[in-house]
Write a sequence for this structure.
C-alpha cells in the first residue's frame, strides 16, 4: 500500500508541458516528492540511468523504480494513489479519456510545437492550419467547464496543459476567442485552477525552456 | 447477459491483428467486419473522424478507436486471462513498451514504401535501432519465456504484430532484418510467440500478405 512516506522523485525541466502534467497529477493527489531539475543540453547521469531508452524528462522514480512518458506516469500515479481520481472509473469513459489524451500527443502538441518554433511565414501558415484542424475536434469535445466535468479536472485537462502554457503564460496566441470560444475559456479556467496555477512556470522560465528546446532540436538535426 | 462486439478491421494491419489476438485469447465472441483499406465504409469515418482508420471496436453500439486503447478496454471489461499486468508498476512498464512497439510502425512503413536502396538501408537501420533497444533491455530475465512470463501478455502481442510485418518485408524485399546473430533473444522470443496456438491460428497468411504488399507498392509507388 502506497503512502506519502515512500520515496517519490521527479526529474524534469521547468517549462516542459510534459513535466507539468505530472506535477499537476501529483499535486491533485497531495503526493510529496523531491524535484530534480535537469538540463536538456547537458543531461544528468541520473536521467540517463533512469530513462536510457529516450533520455527524456519527465521521469518519475517511485521507490527506486523509474517510469517515463508523461501520460504513462500520470496513469501510474492514478493507479497507485486512489484519492482524487484522475481517470473516470467507467471503462468506456476511461477509454475515451485515454483516446483524447493520446490525440493531444499525436496531433495537438506536435502542431503547437511547429506553430511556436517555426520562423518561416509559409511554414507557420501550414502549422496554423494543422493546429486548427486538431483544435476543432477538442472544441467540439468540450461539453463542460473542464474536459472531466463542471467542477473537476482530469486526465484530458492535464494532457492539454500545453494550451494554457502557451496561451496564458507565454502569451503566444494559438487562437482567439472568436475562433475557439470554449477552448479559449477552458484555457483561462484551467490556468486559474488552484492546483494548476501553483505549478505553472513564469513567462521567463518558459522562454528559457523554449530556447533550450530549440537548441537541442537544432543540434539533433545537425546529427 | 448478451453483449455485441464488432470489430472493424483490416486483415493486413498489425493494429487490427493486436485487437484480434486480444479478442481470441480471451475467447470473446465478435463479428469481424473486413474493411478495404483503399475503400473503407462510411461507418469508419463516422466512428473515427479524427484518424479515419481501423481498427474500430463497437461494443453494444459504442465505438472505440486506436488499438492500444481498444485492447486495454477489452482487458478491463473481460478481466479473465488478463493481458495487462495487475501490478501498477508492471502495468506502467507494459504501457511504455506497447507505445515503443507501436512507434516501430513508422520505420516499418518507410521500408514498405522505400523506392530505392538508399531509402531501404535507412529504414532498416531505423528498425534495427528499435530492435537493439528491445534486445538489450527486455530479455534480462532469463526465467521468462515471454514478456508475460510463462504465458504471453499484451507486450508480446504488441511486439508480435510488428515483427510479423517485419517478416513479410524480409520476404518481399529479400533482406534480413530480425537476424539471429544480431538479435538472438528477440529472434528466439518470436519463434516461441508465433507458435502459441491461438497466435498461430490467427496469423495472417504470409503469401497473402506478400501479394498485398506488392499490390500496395505498385499502387502507391507506381512500380513494384
Amino acid at each position: 500500500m502506497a503512502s506519502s512516506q515512500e520515496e517519490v522523485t521527479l526529474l524534469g525541466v521547468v517549462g516542459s508541458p510534459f513535466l507539468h502534467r505530472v506535477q499537476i497529477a501529483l499535486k491533485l493527489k497531495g503526493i510529496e516528492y523531491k524535484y530534480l531539475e535537469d538540463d536538456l543540453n547537458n543531461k544528468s547521469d541520473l536521467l540517463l540511468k533512469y530513462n536510457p531508452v529516450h533520455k527524456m524528462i519527465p521521469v518519475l522514480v517511485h521507490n527506486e523504480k523509474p517510469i517515463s512518458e508523461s501520460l504513462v506516469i500520470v496513469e501510474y500515479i492514478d493507479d497507485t494513489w486512489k484519492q482524487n481520481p484522475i481517470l473516470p472509473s467507467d471503462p468506456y469513459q476511461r477509454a475515451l479519456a485515454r483516446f483524447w489524451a493520446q490525440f493531444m500527443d499525436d496531433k495537438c502538441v506536435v502542431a503547437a510545437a511547429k506553430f511556436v518554433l517555426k520562423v518561416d511565414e509559409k511554414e507557420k501558415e501550414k502549422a496554423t492550419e494543422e493546429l486548427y484542424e486538431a483544435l476543432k475536434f477538442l472544441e467540439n469535445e468540450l461539453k463542460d467547464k473542464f474536459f472531466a466535468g463542471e467542477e473537476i479536472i482530469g486526465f484530458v485537462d492535464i494532457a492539454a496543459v500545453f494550451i494554457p502554457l502557451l496561451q496564458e503564460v507565454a502569451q503566444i496566441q494559438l487562437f482567439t476567442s472568436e475562433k475557439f470560444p470554449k477552448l479559449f475559456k477552458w484555457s483561462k479556467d484551467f490556468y486559474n485552477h488552484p492546483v494548476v496555477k501553483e505549478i505553472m512556470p513564469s513567462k521567463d522560465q518558459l522562454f528559457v525552456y523554449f530556447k533550450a528546446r530549440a537548441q537541442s532540436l537544432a543540434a539533433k538535426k545537425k546529427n | 447477459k448478451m453483449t455485441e462486439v464488432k470489430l472493424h478491421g483490416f486483415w493486413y494491419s498489425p493494429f487490427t491483428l493486436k485487437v484480434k489476438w486480444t479478442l481470441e485469447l480471451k475467447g470473446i465472441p465478435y463479428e469481424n467486419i473486413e474493411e478495404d483499406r483503399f475503400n473503407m465504409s462510411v461507418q469508419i469515418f463516422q466512428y473515427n473522424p479524427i484518424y479515419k482508420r481501423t481498427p474500430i471496436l463497437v461494443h453494444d453500439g459504442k465505438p472505440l478507436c486506436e488499438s492500444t486503447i481498444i485492447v486495454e478496454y477489452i482487458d478491463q471489461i473481460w478481466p479473465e486471462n488478463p493481458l495487462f499486468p495487475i501490478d501498477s508498476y508492471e502495468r506502467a512498464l507494459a504501457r511504455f513498451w506497447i507505445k515503443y512497439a507501436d512507434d516501430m510502425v513508422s520505420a516499418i512503413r518507410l521500408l514498405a514504401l522505400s523506392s530505392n536502396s538508399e531509402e531501404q538501408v535507412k529504414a532498416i537501420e531505423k528498425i534495427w535501432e528499435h530492435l537493439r533497444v528491445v534486445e538489450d533491455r527486455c530479455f534480462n530475465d532469463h526465467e521468462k519465456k515471454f514478456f508475460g512470463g510463462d504465458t504471453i501478455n499484451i507486450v508480446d502481442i504488441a511486439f508480435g504484430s510488428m515483427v510479423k510485418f517485419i517478416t513479410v518485408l524480409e520476404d518481399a524485399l529479400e533482406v534480413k532484418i530480425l537476424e539471429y546473430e544480431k538479435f538472438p533473444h528477440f529472434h528466439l522470443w518470436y519463434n516461441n510467440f508465433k507458435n502459441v496456438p491461438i497466435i498461430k491460428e490467427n496469423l495472417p497468411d504470409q503469401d497473402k500478405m506478400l501479394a498485398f504488399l506488392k499490390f500496395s507498392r505498385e499502387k502507391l509507388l507506381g512500380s513494384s
Observations:
- Chain B has a mean pLDDT of 94.
- Residues 5-77 of chain B form a domain with the Glutaredoxin fold (CATH 3.40.30.10).
